Amino acid sequence: MVDVDDPASERDRRPWVQALVAVLVFGGTAGVLFGQKALEGSSDSGPATCSYDDEPVSERVSAKQLCKALNRSDLPALLGTPQEQAETAYGSESSFKDADGKKTPSPDAEVSLKTYSVKLWASDDDLRVGEFSGLLGRSAESKTILGHPAVLFSGQTIGLKINLAGGKIDTGPGGIARHLLVARDAKDGGGSFEVAIWRQDDVPPDDTALLRVAERVLPTVPGWNGG
């Protein structure tokens, strides 16, 4: 039996939060896909390199670019686990539709180490981070990250139990993930980036590690407005 903490709810949570604001409808899961990728592991020769979905040529930020920004050599040190290295790293192109059928790209990237997993989303929509503050539960805390409005909050991961011999997958509550939703620009004019971390065990993740990752990674992502 192999236990894998899968953030399927975290992958789908971004459209879910937006649904509360814009009455969006979305669906789909990615838990099984993540479980398969997580089991691939990394080469003994060094940390994992990024794999990613093929994406059309576009001016928007891509999953490939997000993965490159997140899978940096000092990520283990930023997480407080400098002795570790990336075991899996990949990006995924996805999108969601609003009530009018308009499709909004929402690419993401994820890097997993022995202790932590880190995920980065980009959303090129019109919604402001300030609009989410009252929708993210009691744990939500307003922050300012590099001069940009932000919200820090908690989420629940989904635990997958994968029986490799029998091909059976069971799901249940996983651990806690900590999220940081950050506006693309200092004026919170719409669009955001989101960084989340969770541990492979049941220990709550370290907020200071999340903030360190966000402050180092976000300025390197295309579409970040430092002004």
Please tell me about this protein's structure.
The protein has one domain. Strand 6 and strand 7 form a beta hairpin. It is α+β, with helices and mostly antiparallel strands and 227 residues long. The strands form 2 sheets. Strands 1, 2, 3, 6, 7, 8, 9, 10 and 11 form a 9-stranded mixed beta sheet that branches. A two-stranded antiparallel sheet has the order 4-5.
> Spans of 5+ residues with little confidence (pLDDT < 50)?
1-13, 15-43
What is the approximate shape? globular
- Helix and strand composition category: alpha+beta
Please bin the fraction of helical residues: 10-25%
Q: Got a strand count? A: 11
What fraction strand? 25-35%
Order of helices and strands: EHHEHHEEEEEEEEEH
Biggest sheet architecture: 9 strands, mixed
Q: What count of helical segments does DSSP give?
A: 5
Mean pLDDT: 77
CA(first)-CA(last) distance:
49 Å
Any idea what the radius of gyration is? 17 Å
Number of domains: 1
Descriptive tags:
single chain; two-stranded antiparallel ribbon; alpha+beta
Structure summary:
The chain has helices at 8-22, 31-38, 63-70, 75-78, 207-217, and strands at 2-6, 51-52, 88-92, 95-97, 103-105, 108-112, 116-123, 141-145, 148-163, 168-183, 192-199.
Helices and strands in order:
Blueprint: E1 2-6, H1 8-22, H2 31-38, E2 51-52, H3 63-70, H4 75-78, E3 88-92, E4 95-97, E5 103-105, E6 108-112, E7 116-123, E8 141-145, E9 148-163, E10 168-183, E11 192-199, H5 207-217
Parallel strand pairs: 2-3
Antiparallel strand pairs: 1-9, 3-6, 4-5, 6-7, 7-11, 8-9, 9-10, 10-11
